């Protein structure tokens, strides 16, 4: 039986901050809101715990994406499943997985993101290829300068990441 191809996206970025600061930026909802177009992450960050991403709407908050923590090794590795909730054409997609690997390098951290487990033809994969680099550049800017890069707020017509 032939092995089924698993499609993935990977992106690495060097951030002039300690791994602990980068970890906090990835796991603290008030922090993610600053660099991730207003999205707030929520989790207990224990294996098996839910991960929920919230965004502001006119009526309060709504869920944009959700998943389950697969691995949590503070401050080196964080992995969770990813399921898009707020884009109708992506809601039925099979959940994928996002993994953040953090490696100290002198006075900086190399953050490597791998988002995998996509089905062939995945619209979510198309979206994350555009979304993740912008999100990680905004995170880098916030940690290094105190100011995140401007990004559009998510709505149901936007890409998944």
Overview of the structural elements:
By secondary structure, the protein is of the alpha+beta class. Helices cover 24% and strands 39% of the residues. It has helices at residues 19-27, 29-35, 123-145, and strands at 7-15, 40-42, 50-57, 60-73, 77-84, 96-105, 108-118. A hairpin with a 2-residue loop joins β6 (96-105) and β7. Mean pLDDT is 89; it is low at 153-160.
Oligomer: single chain
H and E order: EHHEEEEEEH
Q: State the share of residues found in helices, binned by percent.
A: 10-25%
Please give the order of strands in the largest beta sheet.
1-7-6-5-4-3-2
Name the average pLDDT: 89
**Coarse morphology:** globular
N→C terminal distance: 34 Å
Please describe the biggest sheet, giving its number of strands, its sense, and whether it closes into a barrel: 7 strands, antiparallel
Radius of gyration: 15 Å
How does the helix and strand content classify structurally?
alpha+beta
What is the number of beta strands? Answer: 7
Strand content: 35-45%
Unreliable spans are 153-160
* Total helical segments: 3
Task: List descriptors.
single chain; 161 residues; alpha+beta; seven-stranded antiparallel beta sheet; 3 helices; 39% strand; disordered C terminus
């Amino acid at each position: 039986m032939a092995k089924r191809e698993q499609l993935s996206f990977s992106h690495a970025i060097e951030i002039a901050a300690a791994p602990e600061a980068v970890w906090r930026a990835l796991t603290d909802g008030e922090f993610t809101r600053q660099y991730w177009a207003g999205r707030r992450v929520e989790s207990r960050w224990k294996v098996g715990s839910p991960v929920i991403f919230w965004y502001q709407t006119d009526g309060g908050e709504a869920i944009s994406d959700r998943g389950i923590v697969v691995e949590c090794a503070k401050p080196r590795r964080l992995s969770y499943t990813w399921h898009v909730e707020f884009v109708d054409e992506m809601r039925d997609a099979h959940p994928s997985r996002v993994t953040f690997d953090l490696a100290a390098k002198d006075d900086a951290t190399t953050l490597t993101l791998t988002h995998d487990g996509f089905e062939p033809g995945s619209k979510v994969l198309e979206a994350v290829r555009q979304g993740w680099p912008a999100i990680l550049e905004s995170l880098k800017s916030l940690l290094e300068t105190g100011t995140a890069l401007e990004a559009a707020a998510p709505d149901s017509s936007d890409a998944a990441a």
